[in-house]
Amino acid sequence: MDTAGNLSYLSERAQQARPVQPGTLQDGSRIAVIGAGPAGSMFSYFLLNMADTIALDIDVDIYEPRHFCHRGPAGCNHCGGIVSESLVQRLATEGIMLPEDVVQRGIESYTLHMDVGDVEIATPLNEKRIAAIYRGNGPRNSEPLDTHSFDGYLLDMAQNSGARVIHKLVTDVRRNMDGMQVTSADQHCDTYDLVVVATGVNSRLMETLEQQTQEFRRPERTKTFICEFKLGREVIRNTFGPSMHVFLLDIPRLEFAALIPKGDYVTLCLLGDDIDDELMEKFFESPEVRNCFPGGVIPAHACHCYPRINIRAAKPAYGDRLVMIGDSGTTRLFKDGIGAAYRTAKAAAKTAVFHGIMAEDFKAHYWPLCQKINNDNRVGKMVFAFATLVQKARFARRGVLRMTVNEQRQASVTPRMSGVLWDLFSGSAPYTDVFLRTLHPAYIGSLLWNLLASNMPGHAAEHDLQSESEHRHVEH
Questions:
Q1: How confident is the model at residue 318, as a pLDDT?
Q2: Res 415: pLDDT
């Protein structure tokens, strides 16, 4: 018997041996994935590949109204577009190899800007490097890019694994006697054995699902701001370099602000408590921000949006024949949303294939991961609360700057503050790990000493730090 015959024989034997159990996927089962962002595409990819390992023949439909080959809002999923090197490596082990035309620019350092000075923080380890990507095919009215969108690449991977893409907007999901009924904007209805919601939190579908049931509560959200500035590759290389510029400024309600270089554009991300015009005006007026741009002039932005992000998980993120993944269910606070999409997508797919598709299955095998992320986010809120105190206290900013500069100057010094800041900015490590590192006696001792030294009356520390900042803030 040849190889093809062997595979066919083994597949038939596997199908005969598998008992039919209610509440599980069977040959011919139909799965609807609503949303083709990273969570939806990776879920489909994992589900189909896992099903293939046990000779399970299933159909997957991905509903996505966007075309990621389009520029501007028509192809954008409204995200700053940062992935860590560790995530890139994990995806590679799953067979998802990100090609060079997907990664816009490798980020080799962070430049931290404060009113007391700035400092460039080099990557602590090679595996903690980060990459800048476009979720769509570039900003509105931009020239055609010789690149591939991240979301488009993942969707292609899912299609190559056997998923079918339906370019329709889903407006309703209801449970009936036959399974889950999915209704699209053209009023077409179809029935599925399992529905996976991966729309993110900016979709009206989440509100519809919340209204239909008293037990489901959609994620809590906050408004952010993202925009693109077109500066050109040469200007970006000379002014920003391969560095992501992060701002720690005393602006109420601002948790995080960063300028991310990508090809001919620089992406600005503002995260916090409902970003509004007043907050943005204060941010753009700050000299620390203006000094990053050529001539101290902030150009008009080419594209902008006010997406909302998940700051508290959906409860519960599952039901009978229904599961929410990525931002629709649980994600990390402020950072590494794509990493959380990967983790939740894989866990949900594994549960559906190997355990079942009922609420008790997702509760036992999927929800523990969500709880782990949620618990880490609680610690993250404490970490960001401490960062807010630093933002508001000039003496604390001086101490943080002095400690970081000294670590970057001397290779022999353990980069305790630099490592904490890197992981806080990039989301490369769990917030619990970051918090525990701040409790280390050596970290506390060094911080106290630098707080004292940088704030001594008549001391030259501040002048030295500003000189160092001027030295570091030069053309790359």
A1: 96
A2: 94
The residue segments making up the domain with residue 289 are 225-306
The token duo for 7 is 């595979």
Same domain? 232 vs 258: yes
Q: Are residues 329 and 399 in the same domain?
A: no
Instruction: Report pTM.
Output: 0.89
User: 138 in a domain, yes or no?
Assistant: no
The per-residue pLDDT for range 421-471, each reduced to its tens digit, is: 999 998 889 999 999 999 999 999 999 999 999 998 865 445 444 544 444
Percent of the chain with pLDDT over 90: 69
pLDDT of res. 89: 86
- Same domain? For 155 and 59 the reply is yes
